[in-house]
Design goal:
Helices cover 40% and strands 14% of the residues. It is α/β, with parallel strands linked by helices. Bound molecules: uridine-5'-diphosphate-glucuronic acid. Residues 120, 148-152, 205, 212, 246-248, 250, 253-255, 257-258, 261, 316-317 line the site of uridine-5'-diphosphate-glucuronic acid (UGA).
Amino acid sequence: MSSRIAVFGAGYAGLVTGACFAELGHSVAVRDVVPEKIGALQAGNVPFYEPGLEELLERNAERLRFTLDVAKAVEGAQFLFICVDTPPTYAGDADLSRVWTVIEELPPLSERMILVMKSTVPVGTGEKVRSTLDARGLDGVGYVSNPEFLAEGTAVRDFLEPDRIVVGAFEEADSAAVEGLHAGLDAPIVRTDVASAEMIKLASNAFLGTRISFINEIANVCELVGADVIDVAKGMGLDKRIGTRYLRPGIGFGGSCFPKDISFLKLLAGNSGYHFQLLNSVIEVNELQKRRVVGKLQKHLETLRGKTIALLGLAFKANTDDLREAPSIVLASRLLAEGADVRAWDPVADASQVLKGVSFHENILETVRGSDAAVIVTEWEQLRSLASAETREAMRNPLIIDGRNLLDPVEVRTAGFTYEGVGRPTSPLDMLPETEEPAPPVSEPSSAREE
Ligand code: UGA
């Protein structure tokens, strides 16, 4: 059965949610406060990079509307999905001001409507929203927590083929109504109270972050004892109790979710009287992991002052243009502070406003030209062919630090590079001094974008 849905917030979560509900046959009005965003969507353009989303919006155009106007979005809607940002405050708690604005802006309603919280919020938010609605005389408005588990880059698939759908409600009828919207999707439904649904979201992200920090530490120990973390993770992950996913060591987790949600959960526990010790370590390990590349570069190049370092990939992971909490930002800042010249490339993320003092280049070869080291920061497919003769010739010193274990160490070393991944044994070859005279630095091409 087709329902009428309003979605507030046209970010990654809101737009994917709106487009996917339209795909399921519902009629959807997406509302945002940013005129440029709504203008772009009305003109058929997606304001950010998310694979598959543009096609989905196009295919369901007749069931989708975009508006700045609250009243128009809400008119006739049976459900209002709140998909607004909940960024961290200076104290690290969730800034819920955008959520409260949605509630304040709700016009008087003639028919029952269900507010559905998709934004990630601290446990207890649902209770507070419920009391506020009641205090405003909106006791006819239902409230359901239905957290999103959409990873950027695979968000459309994650919505349409979910592992589970979590519905936390105060009233059984509201729970059933929200469940009904997902008809057509094949996934177990977890029906629960509102607080538990809120906790499922925070605990899931915190657990995945914990796995990553754990495997990063295992990788760091592997480097010291001569084990290979790729085999270790495989050998661990095939144990069904452990599972293979989220055991990829790397350069630290980033993005707008894991760092923020882990901090939310830690503070929520602290504010409620419990010291969540484990999460402190997860956060600290992650911060140190982002900086380990600097140590590896120093091992090979000694001082970084005056050295040229190419950062390949800037987005916090592949298949997104999102730079929020990207390890590249910390890494670039550290390298600049060490006195290095930093050159950077990313196929979609534009970091020119975030990374001052870094030069940006249109392609990989131009980025590595004249560099003393190339660092794989984001696992973009385009970087798989990095260890070519062309790259070797263009670099002043053929050193590759692979922050994502994207390349095959044997192939890279055979191609004449010094190589270091994460948690992989170093080859005795990597320790040999350079036998060739370094090539003279090559002057910058005029097409390069300088910042
Ligand atoms: C994450 C969750 O995966 C989603 O389920 C959730 O809905 C979303 O947060 C959210 O709360 O909105 P996302 O931040 O888009 O999604 O990205 P992930 O693919 O989960 O990756 C997060 C970070 O962990 C990235 O920096 C990634 O490179 C890193 N990562 C991931 C690793 O370092 N190793 C791994 O094995 C997996």
